[in-house]
Amino acid sequence: MISDLHLDINHQDARVVARQQTAYLQQQRVGIYLIAGDISNHFSQSLAFTQDLQSQLAPAQVKFIAGNHDMVHDISYAGLESPQGPTYLHRGYLDVPGTNWRIIGNNGWYDYLFADNLTGRNFLTWKRAFWVDAAITQPMTDPERMDGVLAQVEAQLLAAQQVGKRVLFMTHFVPRRDYIKITGDDRFWNMANALLGSPRLGDLLAKYHVVITQFGHVHRRFAPRHLAGTIYYDQAVGYRNKRFSEWSQPDYMTEWRQRLRILDLK
């Protein structure tokens, strides 16, 4: 499991990275590689990267969902909600062969509730002025989009429950308030909390007794946490460039290997 590769922001050659990751994943005998969004700033490039990985890793499987950065260019809302090839897991699932596990994917979204400590704020206007998501078009408000996400996820979880599956759920946006940082002196990030995810998703995952949840979006280094019956993993690679330095390792692949989380699903 991994997220937030940000190949372009980190000035990485996607073809080289695909070869390097393939070699390491094969060495580790990984059977399913899950990427929880933000591969690049162009959906077509993110999709091509996963397809390149898939061609090299087969018979192992590669699955990804879109983060907000993947949505910025060359994909519409309708496109994101449609099948985009076998590596794209949004609104889909993968039953792990030889196990009772089902991997469920949903891109996710946000509804401003993580910033409910702020009153009288216009989060949409702030988003359009300061946030990369201003370039993402959609035919509804952000809370309405999150309503749709919750309806999709509940249908996915109910279907898994009806056939007795244990669920690993993969999304991009933050599903629990435990990962939100509220400060008294940084108004930018207090406003940005509105755009990080929704606590309603975490409530839904608890309701359906989801065993494992993988997410991304926030680049802080969280250890796995057991919350309300679910183990949460945030395995973001994050940025290292002239403006940001979020890595603990000297180069991209070393950082990726350290952030990669390998689970044994039995």
How would you characterize the overall build of this protein?
By secondary structure, the chain is α/β, with parallel strands linked by helices. It has one domain: Purple Acid Phosphatase, chain A, domain 2 (4-Layer Sandwich), CATH 3.60.21. It is built from eight helices and eight strands, in the order αβαβαββααβααβββα. The chain has helices at residues 14-27, 43-57, 77-80, 123-130, 142-162, 187-192, 199-207, 252-259, and strands at 32-35, 61-64, 92-95, 101-105, 166-170, 212-215, 225-227, 230-234. It has a six-stranded mixed β-sheet with strand order 3-4-5-6-8-7, with helices on one face. The chain has a two-stranded parallel sheet with strand order 1-2. β3 and β4 form a beta hairpin. α1 runs parallel beside α2 (43-57). The longest helix is centred in the middle third of the chain and has 21 residues, at 142-162. The mean pLDDT is 96.
| C-alpha Rg (nearest Å) | 18 Å
Q: Please give the alpha-carbon distance between the first and last residues.
A: 16 Å
Q: What is the 3D shape? A: globular
Helical residue percent band: 25-40%
In the residues, how many domains can be counted? 1
Order of helices and strands: HEHEHEEHHEHHEEEH
Structural class: alpha/beta
Output the CATH class name: Alpha Beta
Strand content: 5-15%
Which strand order does the major sheet show? 3-4-5-6-8-7
Q: DSSP helix count?
A: 8
Number of strands: 8
**Major beta sheet summary:** 6 strands, mixed
* Average pLDDT rating: 96
Segments where pLDDT lies below 50 for 5+ residues?
none
Q: Briefly note the CATH topology name.
A: Purple Acid Phosphatase, chain A, domain 2
